[in-house]
Each structure stands twice: as C-alpha cells, then as structure tokens.
Design a protein that fits this description.
Oligomer: heterodimer
Protein name (chain B): ABC transporter permease
Radius of gyration of chain B: 20 Å
Strand content of chain A: under 5%
Transmembrane segments (chain A): 20-38, 58-79, 100-126, 163-184, 191-214, 226-249
Protein name (chain A): ABC transporter permease
Number of helices of chain A: 9
Number of strands of chain A: 4
Strand content of chain B: under 5%
Keywords (chain A): Membrane, Transmembrane, Transmembrane helix
Order of helices and strands of chain B: HHHHHEEHHHHH
Largest interface: A-B, 25 and 20 residues
Pfam families (chain A): ABC2_membrane_4
C-alpha cells in the first residue's frame, strides 16, 4: 500500500499542472490578502458583514479563494488523477503489476485528499499571518451570529473549525468527482459533469447546496443558522461516493 | 476549403455533447421561465425586471449568457483545438493537402456557425416559451431606458441584443481558442479557460474597489474591459439611448474592446497554431 501511495504521489507531482496550480494558488491567495487588506469590512453574503480584524481575516480569505479550489484547481487535479491517466492509457503500466485495484483507488483518493489539505493549510497559514500583519487585533470578535462573541483563542478555534468543515466539503467533492470520472468517458466531459452536478445540486435539493456554495454553507452552519441538514449529506457523499466508486473500479472492464 | 469546413462541422457534431446541448435548450428555457415566473411575484409590471411575453427572449439571454453559453463554447473549443490536436486525431487531417492555416480557419468557421445555430434555436425556443408562459403587454420597460417602448420596437431590440450577445461569445471564444492552442492537455485548457472567466467576473469588483480606495476617479467605462461585464450589463448599456451612455460613447467603446479581443487573440492563436511543431 505504501508503495502504491508513493508511486501515485510521484505521478501526481510529475504532472507540471500540480506544481503550477500550487504556485498560481499561492499567488491568488496573496493577491486576495492585498484585496482584503484595503477593505474594512468582510461580507458573509449580500446583507451581513462585520469589520475585518486579525482574528476573522483568514475566514474571509478562504471565502475569496474557495471558488478557485472548488471550480478550477480541485476538479483539474482530481480529473487528471481519476480519469486522465485512464483516458490516456498511462494506467496500463501500473495495472500490469499484480496490484489490487481497490488499493490503487484508495491510494489515489488518499493522495488527492492530502494535496487538497495542503492547499487548505497554505490558505490558513497565509491567512492567519496576513491577518495579524494587515489588520488590528481585537479582544472580541463576532461572526455571522451577532449574539456570540469570541476571544482571540476562541476565534482561532472558530476559524480552524470552519476550515475543517470546508475540508470535509472538498472531500465530499473528491468522492463525487471520483464517481463522475468513472462514469464519464473523457476529462472534458468529466469537468462539465462536475459543473453540472454542483449547479444542478442547487435545483435538486437544498441539502446539496454545499457542493457549490461551500463557504456560505459553512458560515451559516457555524452561526447555527443553516436550515438544512449539513453533516449527514456531506458524510453520505464522502463515504457512499468512496465505497461505490471503489467497488465499481474493482468490477470495471480495464481492457481499453 | 469547403470540404475541410464540412469535415470540421461533422466532427463537431460527432460529439454527443453538441447534441446534448441542442436538446437541452428547451429545458434550459423552461427552467429560466420557471425562475422568472417566481421572480415576477416580487416585481410589478413597469419594472424592467418584470418579465412579459415580449421581453422574455432578452431576459432569458441575460440569465444564461454568462454561464451556459461561455461554458459550452469553452468545451466545444477545447474538443476542437486541444483534444483533437493533442490526442493525434488531427494527424489524419494534416495528412491531406491542407495548410495548417486553412485547418485553423475551418475550425473557427465551424465553431462560429454552430454557435450561430445555437443562438437561433435559443431565440426561437425563447419566443415560443415567452408567449406560452407569460402575459403579453403593449408597453415594455427596458434596462437603462428612461421611457417605455412599444412591442414593435422590442423586436428590433431583441435581435440587436442577440447579435451583440453572439459577438461577445465570439470574443470569449477567441480567448478560449488561444488558450486551447497553447495548452498541452484538455484539463489544462478547461482550467485556464475557467480561470479566465472567473478573473473576468472578478475584475469589475476589484476595479470599483480600487477606484474607491485610491480616489483616482477613473472612468467607470474601463470596467467593460472585462468581457463578462459586457455580457452582464454592457449589452444593455450599449443598446440604451440614455444620455450617460451617449456621453461616454459606450457602444463604440465596447465594440472596440470586443474587436480588440478578437483581433489580438485570434491572431496570436493562428500564429501559434501554424508555427508550432507538427510532429505530435
């Protein structure tokens, strides 16, 4: 298993796209820091906003960059790994060895989860750092719910928890995209499929709106104002998507 | 050249995605109509946001132009310029006695004709849906107009709106073609194209903020450097006869921007497409 993880990890970083997306992402994060740095208010949505401080800076930074992760960088990395290698025939060289396909899928999923975590952690570290550099520190900060005030330590934990929830949304996206990549034939169609699922989810059920509106969902859920189920659909997406796709890979016709 | 165009045209239609989009146009129109029926409850007759049978085609285009048409253009162009080239299918065309410049223009023409067809089908479906789902009204209120207009005037307005929307899609398409030509893989082409769309969407916000913070007071028209902003509000501003739009020469300015995008990116794409390494 360790070797499978390593081999897949090397293949992910061998694609220039991975490193270039990381560089572009860091550039976007830094630009967004400047953008937020000149603003005095952070907006949760069209209506509610609070003064930007060192304590809540990283949360608003994640909101600004989340669309790049959910709509561009995330899908590209996932589709390249789950569909691009299969589509381009590169996976044949891996599958010629006597390895378990179940484990191969698990290795890909875990590696992508680690890389997504890397992107989220980079945002968090830059956000906390830039927040303390650019914005004044305050003793008490409120978020979307004005009745609940947090001290510096509480605010830090609040940000950390929000980042954790966003990471879970990304994992749900990872499992859903893995299933899509198995169902659909080519990378371009997979990308379109993901956009279709994310946007279509809004029309199908409000419980699926976290796929596209991740940060807005996290804001509301953390303030206790999210009217729909959140953790259950996320968990169902993560685990059901993972299990179904894994078994599907095992029974799939690999002769291509 | 005609045979080459025909072959490109057939290869575009070979994709299921093209048929899928053509079939889903009525569905998209129906969903949009459903959305505007709900929308009408909060906007009384006389507000430009109130939808009637006559202005539904324009409202439906405003709602879907930025997301649906841009993304469809991106996907079709990625298939046509990146996927066919990088997967080697295009070798079978290059084998024949055509110059790469001819192949480029045939691809461009095939895409442009296909988009034109989509726009016509969309317009027809929207006109039908307008009269089925919405009530007719003798007077129409338009965005950026200071007076109501007659339904007869609305016909010309709708046609000009669709024409400009088509021109704006040709503008974004020229950027997508340039991206498709330089990308080594289709995921990269899609990612860069979406990145361009997101940056175009974000630019007006950042420009407004920059103007407010620095206090330079740069002209508001500069935000129409972004193609999606032209698609979002620019076309309505361009077609309006209001004094502010006339003072800024809004129409001329936006047409120049569109022409600039098309000329710059098409020329660059053609140059790279014809000069790059043929041995793939």
């Amino acid at each position: 298993m360790m070797q499978l993880l390593q081999s897949d990890w090397q293949r992910i970083w061998k694609r220039k796209k991975t490193f270039v997306s990381l560089l572009i992402f860091v550039a976007i994060v830094l630009l967004d820091c400047l953008f937020l740095g000149v603003q005095s208010f952070g907006a949760f949505d069209n209506v509610s906003s609070v003064p930007l401080t060192a304590q809540n800076f990283s949360l608003f930074l994640l909101k600004e960059v989340s669309f790049f992760l959910v709509l561009i960088i995330g899908p590209i990395l996932m589709i390249d790994s789950f569909n691009g290698e299969y589509h381009g025939g590169q996976l044949r060289l891996v599958l010629i060895r006597p390895i378990s396909i179940l484990r191969l899928f698990a290795a890909k999923w875990i590696n992508l989860a680690v890389i997504l975590l890397l992107f989220v952690v980079v945002t968090f570290v830059i956000g906390e750092g830039a927040g303390h550099l650019l914005k004044p520190s305050v003793d008490s900060v409120v978020y979307l719910n004005p009745d609940r005030a947090y001290g510096p330590a509480g605010a830090f934990l609040y940000n950390l928890e929000s980042y954790g929830l966003f990471m879970m949304i990304l994992l749900a996206q990872l499992s859903v995209t893995a299933a899509l990549c198995t169902l659909l034939p080519s990378p371009i169609i997979c990308y379109l499929g993901w956009i279709g699922v994310a946007v279509g989810g809004l029309y199908v059920s409000d419980a699926l709106r976290f796929l596209l509106m991740g940060m807005s969902t996290v804001f509301q859920w953390m303030a206790g104002r999210y009217a729909h189920a959140f953790l259950l659909p996320v968990m169902v997406c993560i685990f059901l998507g993972f299990a179904v796709t894994m078994l599907w890979w095992n029974r799939r016709n690999w002769v291509k | 050249m005609m045979a080459l165009f025909h072959s490109e045209w057939e290869r575009l239609w070979k994709r299921k995605i093209a048929w899928l989009f053509l079939i889903s146009i009525p569905l998209i129109i129906a969903l949009t109509a459903k959305y505007y029926i709900g929308h009408n409850a909060s906007f009384p007759l006389g507000s430009p946001e109130h939808t009637t049978a006559e202005n539904f085609p324009v409202m439906a285009m405003i709602e879907q132009l930025i997301v649906v048409f841009n993304v469809v253009a991106l996907v079709l162009l990625t298939f046509s310029f990146t996927e066919e080239y990088r997967s080697g299918q295009l070798r079978l065309v290059m084998l024949r006695a055509y110059g790469s410049s001819q192949i480029f223009w045939a691809k461009w023409l095939a895409f442009a004709s296909m988009m034109a067809l989509f726009f016509v089908v969309y317009l027809v479906a929207a006109v039908v849906a307008g009269y089925v789902f919405f009530e007719s009204s003798p007077q129409q209120t338009l965005f950026y107009y200071d007076h109501a207009v007659s339904s007869r005037y609305m016909i010309g307005y709708t046609l000009s709106y669709y024409g400009m929307a088509y021109a704006s899609i040709v503008g974004t398409a020229s950027v997508f073609i340039a991206i498709g030509v330089i990308s080594r893989s289709s995921t990269a082409a899609i990612g860069l194209g979406m990145g361009f769309l997101l940056c175009s969407l974000g630019f007006p916000l950042i420009y407004d903020l920059f103007n407010r913070v620095t206090g330079f007071g740069w002209p508001a028209m500069l935000k129409y450097v972004s193609l999606t902003e032209i698609q979002f509000s620019g076309i309505a501003v361009m077609l309006s006869g209001s004094a502010a739009a006339r003072e800024w020469h809004a129409g001329l300015w936006m047409v120049l921007i569109l022409a600039g995008y098309v000329a710059l990116f098409t020329a660059a794409a053609r140059l790279i497409f014809t000069k790059s390494d043929r041995f793939i």
